[in-house]
Write a structure and sequence with these properties.
Layout (H helix, E strand, L loop, with lengths): L15 H9 L1 H4 L5 H10 L1 H16 L17 H8 L5 H8 L9 H20 L1
Length: about 130
């Protein structure tokens, strides 16, 4: 007899209202992929870049008390870093303010999946620009 764990819950959808709010933020709206980030995304492919994103989120955001919180996401150097700043998924304070994910506790897998979904949507929109 096997006891299979239930499949993980799908991430909650990223609400349209979030994109409206991010677009109204002069700070968030100024982030766009530059030529180097676009070339990297094209060369590596979305699947690889999203794998990097999953690693970044798990290591830099998911812990209850991330190291250097508020400064753990570089401003440039990878398309995911730019996407994190654009989507307010760059630190626990921004996650709390913009996405209502409280600080001081580890992120649940479904929350990490939601963050990855927001990043993916933003990257797809940037690729279409």
């Amino acid at each position: 007899m096997t006891t299979d764990a239930p499949p993980p819950a799908p991430p909650p959808p990223v609400p349209d209202e979030l994109w409206v709010r991010l677009g109204r933020s002069a700070f968030r709206a100024r982030f766009h992929l530059d030529a180097r980030d676009r070339a990297y995304l094209e060369a590596k492919g979305v699947a690889t870049v999203m794998s990097h994103a999953a690693d970044f989120i798990a290591g830099r955001l998911a812990p209850a008390h991330p190291a250097r919180d508020g400064r753990q996401t570089p401003w440039r150097g990878h398309p995911v870093f730019v996407a994190q700043h654009a989507t307010a998924t760059c630190c626990r304070s921004c996650l709390e303010k913009w996405h209502h994910m409280p600080k001081g506790r580890a992120l649940e897998p479904v929350e990490q999946a939601y963050i990855l979904t927001a990043i993916r949507i933003w990257l797809d929109r940037e690729r279409a620009r």
